[in-house]
Amino acid sequence: MKIKYATIIVDEMEESVKFYRDVMGFTVDSHYDLGASGEITILRGEGEAMVELIKNPTDKPGFFSIGMEVDDLEATLNDLRSRGARVLMEPTPITVGLLAFIEDPNGVRIALIEHR
């Protein structure tokens, strides 16, 4: 999967890190405790892909969608499903290929796109 950068506001940092690490295959790069202002965890995926999780006491969790490019949507979706990912939309043909959606523990939609 390939993304460049996404920031997600979370309300449960540990659960969110576990999802992106154990289900999505990212690795924890760094973590910053900001005291009363919250905390930040940065995770890295393939290539330059990076997800920044922010727990902030004043912001509501959320982000509508993160787009990730995959080489084989069916295989990727089967792998993610076997690791506990919740599938919102099965592979659907679109103009540029196939599209599916999964959801993280905060309700963030993750678009998986296979270009053809």
TrEMBL record:
Entry annotated with the keyword S-adenosyl-L-methionine: no
Residues spanning the membrane: none
Keywords: Lyase
Signal peptide: none
UniProt cross-references to PROSITE patterns, sorted A to Z: VOC (PS51819)
GO molecular function ontology, one term from the record: lyase activity
Domain VOC: 2-115
Protein name: S-D-lactoylglutathione methylglyoxal lyase
